[in-house]
Amino acid sequence: MSADALVHPDEIRSMFSSAMSDMYRAEVPQYGTLLELVADKNDETLKADHALHDSLTGNDELDRLDVERHGAIRLGKAEELFTMRRLFAVMGMHPVGYYDLSVAGVPVHSTAFRPIDDAALRRNPFRVFTSLLRLELIEDENLRHDAQQILAARDIFTADVIKLIYLAEKNGGLTQVQAEQFVTQALETFRWHSDATVSLNSYQKMHDAHRLIADVVCFKGPHINHLTPRTLDIDAVQKTMPERGISPKAVVEGPPTRKCPILLRQTSFKALEEQVYFVGDTPKGTPGTHTARFGEIEQRGVALTAKGRALYDTLLASVRQAVQINAGGSNARDYETELCERFVAFPDDYETLRVEGLAFFKYSPTKDGLDAARNGKLAGTAHELVDQGYLRADPIIYEDFLPVSAAGIFQSNLGGDAQKNYQTHSNQDEFEQALGASVRDELALYAKTQQVSIDRAFDALGLKKSVA
Ligand code: OOG
Ligand code: NI
To which H or E segment does residue 21 belong? Predict the structure, then answer.
């Protein structure tokens, strides 16, 4: 490769995600313990479940499993979100989805920066759940004004990373040397700073209004607050966490345990109380503590269509109406029982999920299909060809997040497991204005992946195009 050849954005994303993981492991040792636990359980699961092993191999998911993780940051002002979009674009990560968390009592709205095409997801599906504080939801006018002033004065990006973003935009990418500098410089924005930018008194005022406001407003930058590996058996990891000195939250967010996993299940361990210094009389500052950083694991399942998602949302809402988890999490079992009982209404085999149009699948020709095509005796729809054994259908993995689950993860790290449901209006327009772009519609991305796979499979079988 010549010195001025451009590095592929997927490669920069992999370099960045691995550098971020190393940094977080050094900053939060429990994250390293969690990674080991997840790797052990994934090995056990794969050894015991050959069908799962085959399906992950067939879907090209096995290779990405070890590098797969997501993280999260919380930003304070529109300009930060705008520049963050440009920074992530250098690594082939683009805003997908709009999440309104105010409905669950968290004063932010969010998107997920992630790779979007199939090849990029296979290479490294690193995602960052990115939230923007909604200052207009702070009721106290003085406090809102103070928060605005503090945020206006901060700059979370290094001068060098800004130059490199411009360079990447101008030249359509970065050279190897520039990419390495970019990763080092970009990492600075996500680093933990134990020096707060405000006095203990200001911190406490923000903290009393909402702990999240203190976390976003009082520090130099949007420290990465967790990194989440993907597990193949979240129940096993949740159960084993205490044995390795980690204490998980009361319940796993998302759907219940199923034979055919759907969407996303997540659980986290409590944020750590860390020593920080507030602006004060002595040069070192006034010592105090702040809790922000935690650990999380996730298990991903098949992506749902709009129809499937509507069923999921309805069932989940009915569970949450029936049982609301209390602050101590002591009624967690009641919640789980209710969840399992109500989700009996959600079909739990891939064939029904596919035929009823509840989930997305990737189609590919089987060997029998290719043989039959040579003899020219194929006909039918995608579903019929699957029935005849000429096509196979593999679940398309859900690459996104769930607003109710995300709010639960936020809540459990802001003090207590209590679930809340607030009513406020979402404001996607304002979010996209700050972002300087519109977010992509995740359902359209899955639908396209499914349709492209059908088109390719039909081409390979010498058939005319069809829809699933
Ligand atoms: C983000 C919480 C949401 C997820 O996986 O749903 C999240 C945060 O606490 O900033 O990470
Ligand atoms: Ni998360």
Answer: helix 9-27
Residue 63 pLDDT exceeds 90: no
187 alpha carbon – ligand 2 mean position (Å): 19
Task: Determine the pLDDT at residue 424.
Answer: 63
The Å distance, Cα 39 to ligand 1 centre, comes to 22
Ligand 1 atom closest to the CA of 228, numbered from 1 = 5
Q: Cα of 181 to ligand 2 centre, how many Å? A: 27
The helix/strand/coil state of 53 is: helix
Structural tokens at position 27: 């900053």
**Pocket of ligand 1 contains residue 225 by CB under 6 Å:** yes
Of 3.20.20.210, 3.50.50.60, 3.10.180.80, 3.40.309.10, the CATH number of 3-256+265-301+401-437 is: 3.10.180.80
2-46 pLDDT, tens digit per residue, is 778 999 999 999 999 999 999 999 998 888 888 889 999 998 999
DSSP symbol at 219? B
Measure the CA–CA gap between 326 and 254, rounded to whole angstroms.
17
pLDDT tens digits, 326-345? 777 788 888 899 999 999 99
Q: What share of the chain is helix, strand, coil (3-state, %, to 5)?
A: 50, 20, 30
Q: Supply the DSSP symbol for 397.
A: B
- Res 417 pLDDT > 50: no
Show the tokens assigned to 61. Answer: 């998911």
Closest-lying ligand to the alpha carbon of 132?
A: 1
Return the ligand number nearest the Cα of 407: 1
Measure the CA–CA gap between 101 and 428, rounded to whole angstroms: 12
What's the chain's average pLDDT?
A: 91
Token couple for 444: 């359209």
Most informative mutation of 84, 98, 409, 411 for ligand 1 (most atoms within 8 A of CB): 409
Mark 327-366 as b/e (b = at least 16 C-beta within 10 Å).
eebebbeebbebbeebbeebbeebeebbeeebbbbbbbbb
User: CATH 3.10.180.80: which residues of the chain?
Assistant: 3-256+265-301+401-437
Q: Dihedral (C-alpha) 393, 113, 311, 406: value to the nearest 10 degrees?
A: 130
Q: What is the pLDDT of residues 137-153, one digit of tens each?
A: 888 899 999 999 999 99
